[in-house]
Amino acid sequence: MATKSSPRIPQKTLAIEEEQTRIQDTLSFPILLSERIRRAVDETRLFKSDCAEVGNKVVVISQMLRSAVRLATSGGGAAAFYDRPFHHIADDVTKNMEKALILVKKCRRRNFLCRVVTIVSAADFRKIFALLDSSVADMKWVLSICGGGIVLTLPPIASNDPILSWVWSFIASLHFGQLQDKIDSASELASLAKDNDRNKQIIVEEGGISPLLKLLKDNSSPEAQIAAATALYNLANSEERVGRIIDDLGIPIIVQGLADSPMRVQIKVANLVATMAKYSPLAQDDFARENVIRPLVTLLSFDIFPDDPMIRIGKQTFHSIVQINKEMEKNTNRVGSSVVSSKVWNNRRERENEKPEVKLELKISCAEALWMLAQGSVANSRRISETKGLLCLAKLVETEHGELQSNCLMTIMEITAAAESNVDLRRVAFKMSSAAAKAVVDQLLRLIQESDNSWLRIPAIRAIGSLARTFPARESRVLRPLVEQLSHGNQDVAAEAACSLGKFACPDNYLCVEHCKSIIEFKGVPPLLRLLKGHERAQLHGLILLCYLGLHVGKSEALEQSRVLNVLEGADRALIAQHPELKELISKAMYHLNVFHSGVLTQRQSYTP
């Protein structure tokens, strides 16, 4: 006969029971001490009235400790009980009660020798009274913060560090308070976290992340979600603290908040996604697994393509957000689909009626989040490309200005950098027959040629350089603008142009010879020589590009007329010492130039710096 298996106990229930046991263990020892003190007081022969006073104070503390135990184990149990201050205060109470017990025991000794050796004075009792009074005040305070409101008074235990007591009070209010108390507490924690890293660490160590995530998850109040998201954003400026948010299962909650919340909430949540992805590669991966890129692209694309049936925002927005809701609610108790649908449509209607500046702020936040998610991540760059993200980004680069345009451009730059390192992504996302790839390249070239802002021109040049292996031979519309930038008055722009042209001219590029011919044809040598007189980065990339030209088109008259061989011979030796790889490259380039310019194959001595 088969035995009936015992029912599986949910993990959350086990965690609650474990927490209940832990807080009971913490509080039980001082309760036992209070009983020992009471018995010792009954046996005293000296300072009986003072010992009785000690006993009275200990009884008060004991009653408060028992109240704490009942609070921890009743109602919602540990799931709703904030135990961190109780652990701190119970440790301090235990130390004070141990001192009280030692003093009371001294007063029960009867023989004369012990009375002579053991000297007890009124001053000893005054010290113990002060310690026990502090414990009474600490216990009274810690029980008061469980009432739900914000308590700003300082308990004796935190007199030297008021931040600690404020953090305890605010976090307790997140656990026990009414909605407005929770909003106020989250706002206060956000303010404290913004002040300095020490405050951030205290909030994290004292258990502030979990109740903030719970408040963010409660979509009944946008104000509460905004306060929670802001506090988490202010905490998430280090990899370690982002890791704590991840460990508390925050990623699914954050993605859910992005998918089905009002626009004001989505702005804060998108900012949170951006800062977490910025500081933690693990967050980048986890966000991608939770499909955060789709709602980000959806929100960024809102109202951009009203006439394009392939990427029209409307029902497609609705269906993609509903799909995310379904994925997020898998294996959990779900609300009816009609309720979810109604909420999403209401949010969409609210989005359409929102103020333009709010819509703009949301797009800025979403673009920054995509930028941080794409940074250094081939997988995320591929996901953005697969969601029509490239076309959306190109359109915004074309039509927008300021921070939104900049964030979209930086996202494109990161995606092209990923494509440079990954041939599969390069072939799929940036094949020149693709409408998205063509739109991206068009906008990058437009910025290179027309933008007055070097901070836009430089990433555009860098992105074109990352795509160097995707362009066909004699691609004049790409190479000519880059060559023109070698003459730019800003040396950083000129250096970036030399770096990008170097990717066209390097031996790793199958079409390097054709590209080198185009660079010379577009009169790139004279400005390149001038670049060698610039700052270190300009000299470095200028010298590398000059060597590539010498290697691949050494017989060019333009190189001979510009005395490139002499230029390489006189290259800055300090620069070569800092970049040893230049030595061999310069030697090879000089050898090729010498062969073609002398007309005979000579065994010219290798260049020695």
Automatic annotation (TrEMBL):
Keyword Repeat assigned: yes
Q: What is this protein called?
A: ARM REPEAT PROTEIN INTERACTING WITH ABF2
Repeat region (ARM), residues? 207-250
User: What does the UniProt keyword field contain?
Assistant: Repeat
Domain DUF7792 as annotated: residue spans: 24-146
Q: Which InterPro entries does the record cross-reference, listed alphabetically?
A: Adaptor_Cbl_N_dom_sf, ARM-like, ARM-type_fold, Armadillo, DUF7792
The biological process GO terms on file are:
cell surface receptor signaling pathway
The cross-references to PROSITE patterns, in alphabetical order and at most eight, read:
ARM_REPEAT
Q: Please tell me whether the keyword Repeat is annotated for this protein.
A: yes
Which residue positions does the secretion signal occupy?
A: none
A family per Pfam:
DUF7792
